[in-house]
Structure formats: structure tokens, C-alpha cells
Amino acid sequence: MNKISLIIRREYLTRVRKKSFIIMTLLTPFLFALIFIIPMLVMSNEDKDFKKIAVVEDGSDLFTNVIPDTRDTDFEYLSGVRLNDIKDNFSEMGYYGVLYISPQIVTTPDAIQLISRKQPPIGLLDHISGSLEKEIEKQKLLAYNIEDLDEILRTINTSVRIQTIKMDESGSTRETSTGISMALAYIGGFLMYMLVFMFGSMVMRGVIEEKTNRIVEVIISSVKPVQLMLGKIIGVALVGLTQFALWIVLTLALVMVIKSSFLPEGTLEQMQQLPQSLAQADQSMQGAGASTMTAEQLTEYQELFAGALNQPWGLIIFSFIFYFLTGYLLYASLFAAIGSAVDNETETQQFMLPVTIPIILGLIVAMGTMQNPESSLSFWFSIIPLTSPIVMIARIPFDVPAWEIALSMGLMLVTIVGAVWMAAKIYRTGILMYGKKTSYKELWKWLTYKG
Hints:
alpha/beta, D-Maltodextrin-Binding Protein, domain 2, four-stranded mixed beta sheet, 65% helix, elongated
């Protein structure tokens, strides 16, 4: 055991001192932080250039003053002006563009043109089309001569939201959110796939490097091959955990620093008080006659926040750590066996396919699990050890029965013992083999060697 600890220490210190480890540990949090921050910056960096748009109607005034002005756009309705009179020199007249509305728009949806020198933003187009659509609908309904039509439309406008309540066998209930569960399933499954494959491949490359440099011949004279393999696997696992923990800490720190630098002062405090203020804001907005859509959005945010708080975070975190460690040990053993059986990385392709196919299948099934977590395919792939680290993590946010999780974890532990035994049989022979192209038949012989 002392020799294994020395190998673990050597593997750990050797890898964390590499420039590549330091660079990736520091660079990756910046990339993660940008993934969170850039969409926020793009959304907040709206086009603030003031625009004045000339509105020309061909022989009718049906849509005069229908399109309301916005904070950065004014619509100037030109009476008695034809499109040909202005479309060639609107820029010299100080207009951003010319909006031409044909009377045929009532029957022909594309009978409207916006002529401009630049590509107009999508928000402007949505504002124009939305205003015209509401006006056309209103005019069509007025043809029925219904009194108090606006009041009737406001009264019948109804939205339906389904609250999902989870009830256990004891009768206690808690509010859940399918959207939050789907997000956790996607993030957990993809993250598990990436980490297991990345750190497992790291073990294989380390074995090939030592075998190619003949370092292993010196090491093997002092320790048993199985001790060397286990020490390398555990050492790389500790490197991976260290790097992953640093990524989380540095990413959170960078996100907070960037958000505090770019967001207005007091925004973070308002976000922290969001759960308490959502209900009050919803009521006050409805009382002030605010749009129903805004109130609905606030309610949806409130439900999402409550659903996130009601997730079984203790089980999710424990299961993620368990399946990461066991999934890594399983695939790292297989990758170590592959690395010991070849002389260079190009020869690994023939052996990598049977190992990578279960990982890819697990990711594919995990994506489908978000839609149907109780399907038989999701169940069996969450039980089979080669795919369970990815699929079970995707199923857990949807309240998997305890016996299924226990069965999956038990099979994982048993499979790891078998995988380590098999990998050790291949490793002890293959690590000292040079200059011979290994085949599956040769691997079977190594597995059946006695002693």
C-alpha cells in the first residue's frame, strides 16, 4: 500500500506541476465565465441609436398612428406622399428607413416593406409586425359590430399554467418544476460524459507515454504492475478532482466579478430578493393595469425558482460524486489496459471503439431521458454499469425510486472490481511488450494467463 501511495503522489505532483495543467486550470474558468456572461452582455447591449422611420400608406389611412413610438424609434406618418417620391432620398431627409404599408396587407401578409440602408434589428421588425397584426385583428372583429369589443377581449384572454406537485407515500407534497429537472438532466449527463471521457483518456495517454519512454521498465522493477496501474488511476483521479474543484471556484469568482463590473449597482441585491418580491410585483402590476404577459413571466420565474429549491440537491450531489468516481474508475481501468497494449496513440483506434460506444450511447439515451425518464430504455441504460453514470444522473432529478439507484450503484461497484481485475491482467503483460501489434486474440491470451 505504501508503494501505491508513492505512485499516487508521483502522478499527482508530476501532473499538477505541468504548464499545460496550470494553463488549462486558469484558462478554462474564463471560457466558462464567458459562456454565462456573453449572452447577458449581448442581450443588454441593445441598439441604442435613435431611428426616425417614415410611414407611407398607399391611398389609405387605415394604419395611421397604429404603430406606437418606442424609446429609440419614432414613426412619422406622411400623408399624401407616395413611395416613389421618398424611397430614393429618405436618408438625406434624416430618416432611418421608409415603412410602406399596402392596403392589401389585410389579405396579403407580406404586403409591407421596410426600406433602409442598414439591416434592421429583429426587435424593430417584431414591434412593427406585432402592432399591425393587432390592428388588423381588431378591424376584422369590428366588422361584427360587437359592442365593448376591447373589454370582451380582455375578459376572455386566459392563460393556463400547470402546477406539478410531487406526493410521496406518506402523503407529504412538494412543488416541482419539469423545466428545472430537464436542465439538470442535460447539464449532469453532459458533464459526466465529458469528465469521464477526458480524465479516462488522460490515464491512457500517461501509460503510453511511460511505455514509449521506457520509464516503466525502471518502475516495474520496484512495484507490481497492478500497483502501478492503480496508483496511476487514483493519481489522475485526484488531479481531475483538483482541477474540477478549481474550475468551479474560479468560474464562480469570475462570474461574480464580471457581473458586478457590468451590471448596475444594486442589481445583485435585487436578484437575491427576487423570491420575496415576485408575488408583490405580480399583484402590483396587475393592479396598475400592466400587461398580462409581464405578470405571467414573473409567475413563471417564481415557479422555476421554487422548483429549483425543491430539487433533491443532497441526493443529486452525492450521486454525481459517486458516479463520477465509479465511472472514472471503470473507464480509466479500460483505458489503462488499452494504453498498455499498444506502442503509440495511433494504434489505440481499434480498441477505443468498444469502449467509447457505451459512453456515446449513454449520452444519447440521457438526452432522450429528459423527455421520458420512466421509459424502459432509460431504466435499463441507467442500470447497466457502462452507461449508468451518465443516464442515471440524467434520471435522478425526476425522482428515481431508491431501489433503482441502489441497484445501479451496487452493480457499478461489482463491475469496477471485475474491470480492474481484467485491466490488471492485460496491464501486467502488455506494459512490457514492445514492437508487436496487439490483436483481440492476443488480449484474450493475456487474460487467461495463470499466475
